[in-house]
Structure formats: structure tokens, C-alpha cells
Amino acid sequence: MALAMMREPLEAQAQQAATPLLSVRDVTLQYQTRRQIVTATYRVSFDVQRQDRFILLGPSGCGKSTLLKGIGGFLSPVEGEISLAGKRITGPGADRMMVFQEFDQLLPWQTVLGNVMFPMRKTGRFPRSEWRDRAMRAVEKVGLAKFADSHPHTLSGGMKQRVAIARALAMEPEILLMDEPFAALDALTRRRMQDELLELWNDIRFTLVFVTHSIQEAIVIGSRIVVMTPHPGQIRAELDATPFKQEDAGSEEFMAFNRKINGMLFGEEKIAHG
Predict the structure, then answer these.
(1) Which residues share a beta bridge with 116?
(2) Cβ atoms of 227 and 58 closer than 8 Å
(3) CB contact at 8 A, 183 and 212
(4) Cα separation of 245 and 223, whole Å?
(5) What's this model's pTM, rounded to 2 decimal places?
(6) pLDDT at 13 over 60
(7) What domains can you pick out in the chain, each with its CATH number?
(8) Which residues lie across from 97 on neighbouring strands?
(9) Confidence at 224, pLDDT banded by 50, 70, 90
(10) With contact defined as beta carbons under 8 Å apart, do 265 and 59 qualify?
(11) Residues 65-108 pLDDT 10s
(12) In Å, what is the CA distance from 248 to each residue of 28, 52, 255, 274?
């Protein structure tokens, strides 16, 4: 009897590990401009496992940011389904937090701590008595404890992005969505932010879906990379990038992988998986 009771939780854990956290199935997304309806993605399918660092990589206009909006629940598919933990996504939720490229995503009248607490106030996700402590822990994680009482206008671009990341992680989401969050930073700050994001992931092991058009950034940050075709976006390839780190960027293996992805982006490589 005791053995049977032990086996059941183990089987449940194995099933949870095998089931993808995020599932995108045959998803076509469209949006309206002043002149026409634009098809951003066409029948896109992929899975994201728990603790993945999953990269959507492609040229401008391939629909990768639109896909992120679909996962965030801000845009509904015209075809197909997006589900999180087995439940269909029908709108925004605190289980999915987004970090954008723009530095103005912070509330200028709030301090760093106030910005990090803001989603907790809006959603009521945690008891009010926990807001400050949770926010402060997140601020400490991104190395901004000394700036907890500062306002956004006093911060650098990289610091503002760290606040945005802290605000998202403080909510303990099922999945963190990042839309080219470092693209507007200078090269040195961008590299430092990439390193800090990976350090945070090693510490917390959150699930990440990250949009970029930089091949090197995709290789450094990602454990899995989806390479998308130009408009309308489709999946050209899914690749494993786990072995590579920032310090590998000058190695022949890294450069060869970079060239391989570059060929896929520009149609010189056949569609592949794995």
C-alpha cells in the first residue's frame, strides 16, 4: 500500500515533466492596420518546457513579437490554439509577465520599489502584507537594492530594464516573456544584461520566452532556438543551443553555429528540426 502511494506522486511528477508548460498549435495570428489585415504568423507550432530559455529568432516583420502578444493573451489566434499548463489562453493573466524593449514601461511617479509592487496592487496576487518584502527581494536579485527609493528618471537604460525584470519576476509567473528587452542598449550594457539574465535564471530557474533578431544573443541566452521565416512567420528550424556560453563567442564552434543560423534566416539552409 505504501509503495503504491509513493509510486503515484512519482508518476505524476514524471507526467508533469513530460507535458510542455506552453503549447502553440497551428497558430495563425493577424492584426489590423489602417489599410489592411496583416497575417503575422501562419500555422506556427512549438512547445516550451518548464525552465526552458526559449528563443524566437527572426528578421523584423516575421511575427515573433506578435507571437509573444498571443502568448501574453493580448491577441487571439484566428486559427489554432495557445495553451499554458494545459489550459487555453484567452486573455492576459498574472501567470504570464512581459518585459518590453522600451525604457518608458516604468511608472515615472513611482520609485523602483513602487514600480515592482505595482502589479501586485493591480492583481491582488499576494496578500498586501507581503508586497513590500516580495518586491524588495526581487530588487535585490537584480542588484538594485541601493536604488529602491529612486525614481526612473534617475536610472540608466540598463537599470530601468533590471527594474522591469524585477517587477515581472516578483509576480512569480509561470512564464516570463521578453520582447527584445536589450535591443536599445549600447553593446557593453547589452552584454552585461545578458550575463545578468543568465545569472538570474541559474538562481531562480524560471521559464523564459525571449524575442530577438540578434543571432549571437539567441545563442548566448537560449537553450532552444526557433528560427522563423520572413513575413508571414513560419518555423524554419528548432535548434538546441545549450552548449554555448558568452565566453564561447570567439570559438570556431560558436562561429559555425552562427553561420548555420544565418544561412537559415536568409534561406540558404533547408528547414530542419533538432
Answers:
(1) none
(2) yes
(3) yes
(4) 10
(5) 0.87
(6) no
(7) 22-90+210-256 (3.40.50.300)
(8) 176
(9) very high
(10) yes
(11) 999 999 999 999 999 999 999 999 999 999 999 998 877 789 99
(12) 36, 20, 9, 21
Would you state the pLDDT for residue 124?
Answer: 85
Closest CA to 170 of 134, 201, 145: 134
The per-residue pLDDT for range 160-202, each reduced to its tens digit, is 999 999 999 999 999 999 999 998 889 998 998 999 999 999 9
For cell 503549447, what's the residue?
23
Cβ atoms of 168 and 176 within 8 Å: the answer is yes
Cα–Cα dist 226/56, whole Å:
5
Q: Indicate the pairing of strand 235-240 with strand 272-273.
A: parallel
> Can you spell out the DSSP letters for 76-133?
--SEEEEEETTEE--S--TTEEEE-S-GGGS-TTS-HHHHHHHHHHHH--S-GGGHHH
Return all residues near 150 (Cβ < 8 A) that are at least 6 apart: 111, 112
